[in-house]
Amino acid sequence: MPPKAQQDDPMDEDVSVDVAPKDLDDKSLRAFMSFFKTLQNDPNVIRFFDRKGFYSVHGPAANLIARQFYRTTAVVRGADTDLPYVNVNRAMFETILRELLLGGTTHVVELYESAGTAWKLTRSATPGKLSAFDDELYRNVEMAEVPVVAAITFTVAEGQATGGVAYVDSSSCQLGANEMLLDDQLSGLEAVLVQLGAREAVLNKDSLSFLDAGQRSRLKALLEGVGLMVTERPASLFNAKHLEADLAKVIKGGSVERHGDILERRTACSALAAVLSYAEVMAESSGGGRYLLSLYNPGCYLRLDSTAQKALNVLPSRADANATYSLYGLLNRCRTAMGKRRLKCWLKQPLVDLAAISQRHDVVEALVADQEMRQRLRDQQFRGLPDVERLTRKLQSRRISLQELHQLYRASARLPIIEEALRSHEGPHAASLVARYADPLAEYHDPEHLQRFEELLEAALDLDRLPNEYLISPTYDNRLGTLADAKKQLEDEITELAQSAAGDLGLILDKTLKLEWHKAAHVRTRCLRITQKEEKNVRSKLQAKYMVIETRKDGTKFTSRALKNAAERLNAISGEYLALQAELVEQVVVIAHTFVEVWEAVSALLSELDVLLSFAEAAVVAPVPYVRPEMLGPDEGIIELRECRHPNVEVQDGVSFIPNDCIMQRGESWFNIITGPNMGGKSTYIRQVGVAVLLAQVGCFVPCSSARISVRDSIFCRVGAGDCQMKGLSTFMAEMLETAAILRGASSHSLVIIDELGRGTSTYDGFGLAWAISEHLAGPDVGAPTLFATHFHELTELQATVGVKNLQAAAMIDPKTSRLTMLYSIREGACDQSFGVHVAESAGFPPEVIAMAKERLRELEGPSAKRSRGTESEMVKGQRQQTEEEAAADVAELQSFLRGFCNLPLDGMSATDAVAAMDQLLATLPPRLLAEST
């Protein structure tokens, strides 16, 4: 057994192992190796073998464990190849489990136990199905995320590919399904998977033939991008023949007829049948239906794809050096684990319904205004509140312990105090707080509900033994009381016998003579122990009257006939007592199980209130307090953010954030073009607008002095630059793929954020694309509010009926030193230069390089270059002075170009072919539309 693999903190240690496990004899080892060879070698399956005290991993998985968790090169004695096996103790086993199942990997974990010389699989888990290892995963660790399992399948109807998605959330007992028409980018499917936050998906591999090559390639990239573990299964798993009968067994009430909106969607039904089978919902629901089934409507939430989530830093990543780098880390001031999970869910599912958003804002406003109530709830009642949601899940499966039932008891006792605190508020939203939270809590804690639960626990638990032991009270059952009395009498008899032995040997009980336990052949019994020194003094009496059990360095254990007889009777009584305890615990759990629905409702209310308390606290403790936004209908056409700030940037150490206004109004400034130097704050500005809109629709206050926001149905982002060499994607191709999703999905109710579009190709190509895309987004067919940060200064000539406004990130050049100073202020007007050389100088470029760059820049900005640029500008302006017929022709040319661009199967093409196709499309446009001087 590798000695260093047994340490609790083995990082950066060498692992030294033998070739063969020394804990097995030859026969057992041969039997084990023969069994191991029969297992299919799948690199994604990590198999642990329980060796009663440690866990063994064999084969390629051993090397993965050594590299990933020990960060070491293993030293193998007796072998020149990789590690044959690695053994870990229980603490390390639990650490590895959490990383494999909760750390975003795509592994299956299996645990095998021995049955004689044979081995059998006893437990298995995947990132979406964790219940088999609940105890190990969440021992002294919060449950950070809800494991959601999804199923995906495809069909074709009338020549149009259709996708079916279903999901199961076992923690909240939710089932949902829907189907959608698929576009080339599968943007609708991506939005649903991002909203659900699914950890695992079962995919109908036989249905992939309904997708074209580009869609199949995009599907693969999409599933990788959202971090899903994908398991492919044949079409037989997606057979919906017995779906109605299965649903009747798992949904509350068993009434399937009222779910006709789902049953009429055949593709959705196929996905629902698969997720029921794969997630083993039928087996979990053997005690009766408990799931709520609904038609999942992604339109109920603001649409965020994975690109937008990353661009706005919505959720934390492993690369974050500080928790406040993400919106989740910034807002996460929740006191409970269930609140933290709910916060993640809300950030993935911002609301679009004005009434629902206003309801959250009302509660946050009341909590912000009433500091006493907020602190009373956060610091007294929610601090230390157990994870009611997870405990309810364990109660539902009847795998809950008495200690965990007592945690629910403690939570129940706090409900009246929480209710009282909510009723004490006297602000304008007092009635809303009472109706939404206080009245339901009072109902759940009335004499017919949780007061009965408390009475059950008070009667069943032996309160005198808490918190050291959690046992059924002897007064709860007469049989248990009789056994408890018999145990007490025998324990007293044994104490008297020990006292008698002490007097006989001339020793003092509990000083020179100890009454202890001795374990032999898995049986514990009472005995006496004296030290070796005392044993020499009483050896003659000891040998004459007593029976020596064991002699060790720490002393000699012995007993007498009377003591041995009493200890055997005590063992027999104790066995009966423990068996009856287990029987009564099971009875208590069965009775407590009847309160599951009440606890589900309580956990939902408490987690929601915890998140809103967190929002209020975040709004108050910010460097400048957040304000409540005024929310407007989607057709109002206004996004007005006064003195807006980026919430993640302003809390960083050493930052004195400069706020800026953002006024977007349809017909005047619906399309904002932001120019200015690199590092001047353009990217931060456009992102902070997206973040403010997202926060407002989640239900949080926003970092502004005032805000009026027309509700958006989606946020699209194209920010940052980067390639993906592993996928054969250049920087240009990566941004084209992201832009294609925007062009297909954006509408007048969206918010579009674009940063530096057109890099990675020639200047003319890049500008031509940027102009065409801007015209499309600002045109009558889309009319999306857009923030477009660019270095193409000619783009500032754009005009559109929705209203185009030019903004610039202000900067100042010292006339004496030529040093550039960023003002981080967004002002009206266009910037006519990018200050690239000045930024390079600030970055510490060698003086000779800076001097050469300035000289070359002066040459390029000479009279001929200025004339050329002027001609370019005039040509762009000239387009605005064309006749209606000429303008209509240009619009038709641009629309034709965009249709061709949107129809390119970019995902299925190599980078070279894609660029060639783009060049061919660009060649079809008239030169004047590319603003290219010939």
Topology:
Layout: E1 16-18, H1 26-38, E2 45-50, E3 55-58, H2 60-70, E4 75-77, E5 85-88, H3 90-102, E6 108-115, E7 118-125, H4 134-137, E8 148-157, E9 160-169, E10 174-181, H5 187-196, E11 200-204, H6 213-225, E12 229-233, H7 243-250, H8 260-263, H9 266-278, H10 281-284, E13 292-295, E14 303-304, H11 306-311, H12 327-331, H13 337-348, H14 354-369, H15 371-382, H16 388-396, H17 402-423, H18 430-444, H19 450-460, H20 478-505, E15 514-520, E16 523-530, H21 532-537, H22 539-545, E17 547-552, E18 555-559, H23 561-593, H24 596-621, E19 630-632, E20 638-644, H25 647-650, E21 660-665, E22 671-675, H26 682-698, E23 706-710, E24 714-718, H27 731-745, E25 750-755, H28 763-778, E26 786-789, E27 804-813, E28 820-828, H29 836-842, H30 847-860, H31 863-879, H32 884-902, H33 911-922
Parallel strand pairs: 1-4, 2-6, 8-11, 10-13, 11-12, 14-24, 19-23, 22-26, 22-27, 24-25, 25-26
Antiparallel strand pairs: 2-3, 3-5, 6-7, 8-9, 9-10, 15-16, 16-18, 17-18, 20-21, 20-23, 27-28
Helix pairs in contact: 13-24, 14-24, 15-17, 15-24, 16-17, 16-24, 17-18, 17-19, 18-24, 20-23, 28-32, 29-30
How would you characterize this protein structure?
Pfam families: MutS_I, MutS_III, MutS_IV, MutS_V. This is DNA mismatch repair proteins mutS family domain-containing protein. It contains 33 helices and 28 strands. It is of the alpha/beta class and 934 residues long. It folds into five domains: 3-137, MutS, DNA mismatch repair protein, domain I (3-Layer(aba) Sandwich), CATH 3.40.1170.10; 148-300, Nucleotidyltransferase, domain 5; 332-449 and 595-621, Orthogonal Bundle (MutS, DNA mismatch repair protein, Chain A, domain 3), CATH 1.10.1420; 475-592, MutS, DNA mismatch repair protein, Chain A, domain 3, CATH 1.10.1420.10; 728-798 and 862-934, no CATH class. α13 (337-348) packs across α24.
